[in-house]
Amino acid sequence: MAHPKAWLGQVGDTDIRLLKVFKAVVDCGGMAAAELELNIGRSTISRHVKDLEQRLGLVLCRRGRGGFALTDEGRRVHADTLQLLDALESFRTHVGQMHGELTGTLRLGLFDKTVTNPAARIDRAIRAFRERAPQVRLDLTVGAINVLEPAVIDGQLQLAIVPDHRRSQSLNYAPLFPEQMRLYGGREHPLFGRARVGLDDLRAVEFAGLAFHSPNMEVTRRFGLKRSAVVNDQEAVALLVRSGRYVGFLPEHYAALFEAQGEMRRLGPADVGYVVDFVAVTRGPSSTSRLTQTFLQCLLAAHAPA
């Protein structure tokens, strides 16, 4: 319940500073963990959060032996804080753009295990973008399709690079590069030493697949594989494959690192595999900033045919 003397005036610089401290505490999962992020002592952080609570007339979090936890009011204030800070950042960015400057923060999403793909030239795009926008801060998040695409739709991310699958009418898709997927087994797997492994052999063993709708899930059904473990990223697939208990699809360029060390090998007929086409996803033109458009141009130029 709100304190009878709760502050209901205009938001000033002091309030913005306190809200940024509160956001950092929530993002880090507690005051102790936020010390490095904020570069201030825990006692100072605690005082700032208490000051914010007094300003709002609300109890935002519980802290003690049981750890750090947000109250219901704290969760609502945190959600509103994210919207407020995002609006302030957008305002600053738009004003800078009206002066012909590229400023602010570019929030990007990236599907995992792309850095070793020779067809992925995201690093070149970043280099070209930094030359055009040296004042822009990059915020890069690695995640799964079912996390990244909704984040673009909601405006939490401005652009994401993901496998092309089940397109949404709320997003624009720009093709970038392909990725070859193959089926692998670990050194301790019963099929590892077999000279020939057929599709029936693969259907009889345990398979580790991605838990969300993706090309991986479609191919699993097409080949009739027995999915007995589900994961949310490809590093987890690699871990289960190396256990010797599961087979799983991995990017050819990523698995090559383990093949070279004798940790795993390709299994099955040559056609047991698939190609994933990666795309850059953004919101509609009316909601795409000049910052986002500039980075997208750099991405498309980096991946243009030679």
List keywords for this structure.
nine-stranded mixed beta sheet; 11 helices; globular; alpha/beta; single chain; 306 residues
Describe this structure in words.
The structure is a single chain. With 306 residues, the protein is of the alpha/beta class. The chain is built from eleven helices and eleven strands. The chain has helices at residues 13-28, 31-38, 42-56, 72-98, 122-132, 145-154, 199-203, 215-223, 234-242, 252-260, 290-302, and strands spanning 61-62, 69-70, 105-111, 137-143, 159-163, 172-186, 206-210, 226-231, 247-251, 264-266, 273-282. The strands form two sheets. Strands 3, 4, 5, 6, 7, 8, 9, 10 and 11 form a nine-stranded mixed β-sheet that branches. β3, α5 and β4 (137-143) form a beta-alpha-beta unit. The chain is globular, with a radius of gyration of 24 Å.
